[in-house]
Amino acid sequence: MTSYSEDYTALNTNFLHSNKEKLNQQTVIYFATMNNRKTYWLCQFIGWLGMVAIETINYTFFITGKFNIELLKELLLYAMGGLVLTHLFKIILSKTKFFHKSKTSIWLVAFVSTFILSISLVLISFIPNLFQKNGMEAFKLLTPIYFLGMVMNWMRYMGVWIIIHFMYKILQQNNAIIKEKMMIENLAKTTELELLKTQLNPHFLFNALNSIKALVIINPDQSRDAIVKLSELLRFTLQYGKERLIPIKDEINEVRKYLELEQLRFGKRLTVVYNIDENTLSQTVPPAIVLTLAENAVKHGVTKEIENSIIVITTLLENDNLVIQIKNNGYYKPTDITGIGLKHIAKRLDEIFQGKAVFSIYQEDKNVVAAIKIPFL
In the prediction, which pLDDT does 29 show? Predict the structure, then answer.
């Protein structure tokens, strides 16, 4: 019985470990957010100061022919107004689900927003005139044509900002959708594989129990050895669902136990031959997949043969592929493969190896061959 201090220490350790993981996740999110903010403001300042530089050079060298400090001040005012307006616009967009709409709606709003922001920027540029003597004279010179010309001029810069920002948000939205879709697909595949494993466990349990029941009746003296093999086989079938792939060496060991159990049941009627290439032992396979084929060979081959039966298990390497064959004497009938085990082998292989593995059953002379071809991992 553990002491109070030991329980408290264990509880405290788990609490600290859990909080440490949460803190690490929060730290990663925090720094990612900070980096995004730094990048955003850096682009804002570079973009608007770039506008000031372009307009200053344009007026100095190509229009007036001389540097004008008042012009620079005016352009800096435009830059400050543009920065404030675009940032406020960004905040408004962030509080809505605007980028979930259709692309036509998004770009229509982009055009209207460019026009409205440009008008606002032109109006901001006239604010200093309100604090100057005879400042209202400037408004009298503001004809509709002149005002529209100024708006069109600043739409060049607002349009660039809007296009860049909208493209970034659309790409960000698409990436989020792709990631979510991939997560859903992975979850679906994982769930399907777990379901297949859950279905296969009882499949082996019931067949193994049927074998041991027949053995107890036929040969009670060998029942003890059979029960040991059965317990090891059941432990494997109950635990293999935890692993996605296991070494083929471990899989063959379980197949041996199963077939030894069946040999105790059928006696001399059943012969098992193993042609195992040692170079294949390091390769991995989905757990219980060979065991399923071995059970199928017994169920649809050995039990239906009056004379002696033979099962040949072969593993070999072929052109960067692992080939596994289970051969038993008999005749192939498609109606024999409607059971849970074989019906799901192709699905498991397809999910794990992304369609690169091949499963087939065919007749070869007087034998039925079940073959699996798996690419090297």
Answer: 57
